[in-house]
Design a protein that fits this description.
Layout (H helix, E strand, L loop, with lengths): L18 E4 L2 E9 L4 E8 L4 E2 L2 E3 L3 E7 L1 E4 L3 E4 L3 E4 L4 E2 L2 E2 L4 E7 L3 E4 L5 E5 L1 H4 L14
Antiparallel strand pairs: 1-2, 2-3, 3-12, 4-11, 5-10, 5-13, 6-9, 6-12, 7-8, 13-14
Protein name: ChrR-like cupin domain-containing protein
InterPro entries: ChrR-like_cupin_dom, RmlC-like_jellyroll, RmlC_Cupin_sf
Pfam families: Cupin_7 (PF12973)
Length: about 140
């Protein structure tokens, strides 16, 4: 699916399945740009789920669609908030006390970390392509 220079596309997110990224955490891949390494996903974190510690390699922007919580480094967040996480930011585990749905736009990967600070895995365009609908796995302008 490529963007036309004169138009755009509409992605019907309600019709997309949530794909399990981790226990209690589902994602919908909305955009992958292999040229720049940027990507956009929706994330649904169920009550009781945990986002492991991670480091941003590129700035991330997050819009909270539903829910609220506390991020140790960024602070409290709620429905309607917009969160900016800078390149190089390292984040502690995030524990979800209620369901949270968010859209995340990233300029680059997120490196998930082991207890000793070493990288466990990299969430990037290549990794996310396995969760994407086939038409999203190629290069997309955005």
């Amino acid at each position: 699916m490529e963007l036309d220079k004169d138009g755009g596309i509409v992605i019907a997110t309600d019709g997309m399945p949530w794909r399990e990224l981790a226990p209690g955490v589902g994602i919908k891949v909305l955009r992958l740009d292999r040229e720049t390494g940027a990507w956009t996903i929706m994330i649904r974190s169920e009550k009781g789920s945990v986002l492991p510690p991670h480091r941003h390699i590129g700035m991330s922007q997050i819009y909270i669609i539903k829910g609220a919580g506390r991020h140790e480094q960024a602070g409290d967040f709620k429905t309607g908030d917009y969160v900016i996480e800078p390149d190089g930011a390292v984040h502690s585990p995030l524990f979800f006390e209620e369901e949270v749905i968010q859209i995340m736009m990233a300029d680059g990967p997120s490196a998930f970390l082991n207890e000793d600070g070493s990288e466990s895995f990299l969430m990037d365009v290549n990794m996310l392509s396995q969760f994407a609908d086939p038409e999203l796995t190629g290069d997309r302008a955005g």
